[in-house]
Amino acid sequence: MKLQPPQLAQRFFSWYCRNHLHDSILGDLDERFYLDLQKHSPRKAKIRYWLGVFSFISRFTLKRDRKTSYQNPHAMLMLKSNLIGSLRFLNRNKGFAFINILGLTIGMTSFLLILFFVNHELSFDNFHQNREHVFRVNFAFEDNSGNKSTLVNSPPAFAPGIRGKFPEMTRVSQMRYAMNCLLANGELSFYEDHGYYADSVFLEILKFDFSSGSPSTALDEPNSIVITKEMAKKYFGHTNAVGSTLLLNNGIPLKVTGIMSTIPTNSHLNFDFLISFPTYVVPDGYASDLTSWDWLGFHTYVELENQTDPIHFQEKLEQLFRDIHPEDDHPMQPIVQNLSDIYLGSSDMTDDVASHMRTGSRLNIYSLMAIAVLILIIAAFNFSNLSNAISVNRSKGTGIRKVIGAQRRTIMWQLLTETMVITLSCLVLAYGLSILLFPKIAWLMEWDLALSFTKVVSTLPIMTITAMLIGLSAGLYPALLLSRFNIIKSLKQELKIGSRNPFQFKNMLMLLQFSISIGLISATFVLTQQINYLRNRATGFDKDNVVVIKMLPEDMSRYFKVYKEQLMQYSAVRGISRSDRSVGEAWPFSGILRTDEGPEHGKMIFFNLTDHDYFKTMGIDVLDGRTFSQQNRRDSTDAVVINRKAATFLDLDNPVGQQVHFFDLEGPRTIIGVVENFNYTSLHQDIGPVAMVLPFIDLEYMYVRFADSNPTDNIHLLETTWEQISSGAPMESRFLDDNLNQLYKSEERLSYLIRFFSGLSIFLASLGLYGIVAFMINNRIKEFGIRKVLGASALSLHLLFVKQYVYQVLIAMTLVAPILHYYLNRWLQAFAYRIVIEWWVYPLSTLLLLVIALMTVIYQTIKAARENPSGILRSE
Known about the structure:
The chain has 28 helices and 24 strands. It is an alpha+beta fold and 876 residues long.
């Protein structure tokens, strides 16, 4: 082993010697040390080296006070020189520079695209200045069996009942979803389902911008309506519509008292119009009225005073309900939810009226943000690895700069400037690409948002800091190494960054890249399998070839019979029925009690109002008894059909013929039949107990089953037949399977994104691997030539580079599989019906990544192995 000068002496010399004298004097000392080794013993050579270090201490060599500032008059010229030098170096290494810039730009672009969306999701309702003091009051209830549910709804008597009772509450407002609305202006009419009945206080609590009209008085009078400017153009052709009239449900004239600006897309309330609350009338047949404290069909918002503790306010509301129902062991529990938490904090709550309130998913947000960070990490690692590798090529130039007097600080500054300029340039390119791509991606992913200048600017601080950190991490190590390296070794290009140690930093970075890629590929497999499972799982009813028609309940009562008779004349139509709620949306619930049990055994059960042909049309199997019959007139008041889960829920071994109290209607009802369990709502929830009775109010959903799936002809048949009988009344129709697929749109979009970004991660990892391997082969080309001369086969040359990456990929799978398995199973817990993650998912993902990695490496090694060794050695 070659003896080196004493390092402690070198450090001492570097500590006291001025920078511009440091390298030349240290080079002389080192040269004299090696001459002394030839004449004297190593011990004596080191002593003479120490004496030389001390002999150079003088006022000419000692550093000045470090606190003394020195202003370099040529700083701008030095910066310009550094930039020119960097551009020349990148020009000499075009291929590696292109890989570096492309990879980092793609990573930053991906991060920005997701960041724009995540920022939007986190900004919901932030435009309300009083958002910290506004709360929605939700309600949770628990039946006597311990089943607990939480709804975003409240009873109609709640808001009037608490008004003025609590000093910390400044305002309270209530709303009712306008679920059956036909609005018309002359011959122009449309079904509208994005609206609410709201009282006059609503626009004082939640302030939305108005283009005309007064928010404080717009909803004061009955038969008033406030519409958005888009809706004004739709009905009137212009936005100056204040004072105009719209006809509600063919009978109620509504005066337009205000025009709102476009409702922000980051509002959890998604509406096009507001009707004054006094206009609302409880439909005929409802068992409740506006004085009910139990009917959870409304929404309540409260505004509290500053410094009010919402938990303390909630406790007061809980006590209020205990006072109202002192005999109830499980009274409804009010839950106060802050406005800023509603969008992301309501995913596990139910809306009993199935309104169009926007809800998000924290899990999806966290997943997307994790993906964005992982993609950026891969890109940053690639950039750092390749920057460190190609810095070897500039050791000779660095040595020359030192010879002509360049200080260590200057060299470090030049290298750091280069990486900073590259990363900031990549950031500028990423912003340009993300602004161009975001509208297209938002359209493909059905994101309801537009990119504004403010949203782009808001990301600048974090992205600039991120870019500078990447540049610093990529440039700091080579800058420190090159600036400290010996001049003679630099000129001889003997610089080596790292070693072949498997625990070398660049190998650890590559291992982490492979782990991320395997994780994303595995997640893609699992998400795709789960989505396919949800789409193809048996739901207990036949969803194919069924068209759902929605119309006003009044029109349903008026036209259903004749419409059904006309349609049944066609051989393509196999069945027609109707119901109050459609499958796929939230079903209401009510109390149910066996007649042989006391009130303390009452339970809550989901229900729907259906007609006689519902079970046949929907393809729901009857397990025991019968369904509703038109020949038995008592079925409308005395009969109930339950599902198998309800029979178990009520602890009935032979339910047919048993009697139950249901829906607070007079007299008990007899269970006439038990049907098979079916998924009446999303597969996120387990099948619950269900009871179905014949309607006692007008219904709004109609189902038509066709013999075959010919969408165009089927819809044309429905529309032409409707036009013949309806005198121009509007009708909405959609296919049931399309409607059900919308329930899993959020998971499907997440699956698309993970699929795309897993492919992107593989591309970035392969890109970085391609650059690293190409550089390593280029630096070891002489070794290739010597090995070929000595008889090495092409296979052995391949294995020289391939085996380490095979090991890394296998180690990556071992590390990531347990962690990923845990988090994927946690994600699957959100579904009542879910797949079991198979053992082969992780090996298959690893094999896919391994094939791609090997193709990347082998392409380079084959190219090098085909080189003529004599040509290689001659040029070397």
